[in-house]
Design brief:
about 350 residues; alpha/beta; 12 helices; 14 strands; about 25% strand
Length: about 350
């Protein structure tokens, strides 16, 4: 499998005491959308900055398209399109002026630069705002301009940090659809804490917690690894009738059932029992009762369930998370805070 991004025991320590990234091993296949998921402070942004060569690691290495990432590796940065969280722009410029300036700094020839920036503004829906000063832009418009800027040099790798943060539903939907389109010809690494974004667009996911990668694999592997064999049924009827159906369901072989939120029953199927057969039996109970089925779905969002379980497991491990086989990674340079 060809890899667009690879890290080996990547570690970043600030001021000799704050461990932002801890022994990170990451593999992102070429042509994939990889979601770097984790709560705020997990180390996602620091990881992106290390890949860009904006910071030097205390230990370990990072590679983009086979080239070593470092502050001196300008060729690596030329192959990356970066979108920071809440990008900041010179407010006195118009979007065309800003993109044209970036194109000149990137040494893109005028005959290529001019039509490309026009096409990008059209693609991100800013063509009608070309005469506006950037300082008048909304959050969504600034994100769209940041997206255009990250694509200006036509890079094969995109690193986008929280691309949907602060966006309204329409702008968020636009951004997710655009990522899906771009993935046809590029590798995209998206850092986010928004679970639904990962679920919709990503082929692979890595979960970070306190600087460590606690899971990395395909979306399918993540859901299968921590799958919860339960489902929820939203019912219309009196609370008494709904409770009666739940009690009847709980009496079925291998089934546990409980009422949640007054009108919702959560049913869980034990190991060794058919989930389909249990669901059919519960539906028969609903048909026979004085209630009607409004909706049927997984008892809990699978991505959310897997994510929360991973975080809970990592916290529960405590000192067991310390891996003696990789202790050498930070030993030599733990006091070096880097640039």
């Amino acid at each position: 499998m060809d890899l667009a991004i690879r890290t080996e025991h990547l570690t970043k320590v600030y001021s000799g005491r704050v461990i932002a990234v801890n022994d990170l091993n990451l593999e992102v296949p070429v042509g994939s959308v990889y979601g770097l998921l984790g709560p705020n402070g997990a180390g996602k942004t620091t990881t992106l900055r290390l890949l860009l060569g904006l910071q030097r690691p205390n230990a370990g290495r990072a590679y983009v398209l086979g080239s070593l990432c470092s502050p001196a590796a300008t060729s690596v940065r030329q192959s990356i399109g970066y979108l920071p969280t809440h990008p900041v722009f010179p407010g006195h410029l118009r979007p065309v002026e800003y993109l044209d300036l970036l194109g000149k700094l990137s040494r893109i020839p005028s005959e290529v630069r001019k039509p490309r920036l026009t096409s990008l503004l059209r693609a991100v829906g800013l063509l009608s705002a070309t005469n506006q000063r950037i300082r008048t832009f909304s959050t969504g418009m600034r994100t769209r301009l940041g997206i255009a800027a990250s694509l200006l040099a036509d890079p094969p790798v995109l690193l986008w940090d929280e691309p949907t943060a602060g966006l309204d539903p329409a702008a968020r939907r636009f951004t997710l659809d655009l990522i899906t389109d771009l993935a046809r010809t590029r590798t995209v690494l998206v850092a986010t804490h928004i679970l639904s974004d990962i679920d919709q667009i990503c082929d692979y996911v890595g979960v970070m917690h306190e600087g460590r990668m606690i899971f990395s694999g395909s979306m399918r592997e993540m859901k299968q690894r921590l799958r919860c064999d339960d489902f929820s049924l939203e019912l219309d009827g009196s609370p008494e009738e709904i409770r009666r159906v739940a009690e009847q369901a709980a009496a079925l072989p291998g089934v546990t059932a409980a009422v949640r939120d007054t009108h919702t029953i959560v049913v869980q199927v034990g190991n060794g029992f058919s989930r389909a057969a249990a669901m059919a039996a519960v539906l028969n109970l609903i048909d026979a009762g004085n209630v009607s089925l409004q909706s049927l779905g997984s008892g809990q969002n699978e991505t959310e369930y897997a994510y929360l379980q991973l975080l809970q497991e990592d916290v529960a491990h405590g000192f067991r998370r310390f891996d003696l086989t990789s202790a050498h990674v930070a030993d030599a340079n733990i006091g070096d805070s880097g640039p």
